[in-house]
Amino acid sequence: MSASGCLAVAAWFFWFVIGSGFLENPKPNQTPLDSAKPALLWIQGSIALLAGLFLLLVARRQFASNKTLILSMENEQQRYGRVSRFLHWTIAILFLALIPMGIFASIIPEGTEYRNAYYVVHKTLGVVVFALLLTRLVWNRISKRPELDPSLKPYERKLAHGVHIALYGMMIAIPVTGFVMTSFHGYPTFFFIWELPPLWAPSDTATIIWGTLHKYLLPYLLYIILGAHILGALKHHFVDKHSAAFKRMVG
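Now predict its structure.
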């Protein structure tokens, strides 16, 4: 599922986004930082492709193995259970789709036929991710997370714990700031066919403040934190040879 999700995002980017021509002729920039959006989409599309191929390789090696992977619903001492794995990869794939989709929607020129449809899908995914994240937090209280690899140094344990907390904070803050920004802008929030009208009166000042958080500050912080999380996992597996660390979620 995770490999298919990453490859689907990559296919969407390399087939549809590039073919749209909006990377070369985007909507006029609102701030100087908007000029970086086409490059960000290229980076995210390429990462989705590489991640999909890597996860496909992991899945292929697991299928080729004679070992049968038997997982319980709840987490075990050394690895995550089915529920945690489903929530982890579903949230990860939806977030991987949510970010480039939001960036692409923001560069689609005014008057394009499907522009509003992208915002509806983007907002719907945001609500879904927020709900799944709350579910994951509740599940973490019900089923204790596996212990970190005992070979990790004390500073590595603190760093891993800090990155996890920061990731949860980002995944909560980004949907919330997007919802508040949308409301202050006078636009509704969508969840499939359900429409939630703005909760506050329109305010240009509040829209700018919350929009700065949602569109610029938080996403760039997320790139750093998410990059640290991924690089840390790869380092533990390939450099430190802590094979159990990676297998906690995929094996």
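The two ends are 14 Å apart (CA to CA).
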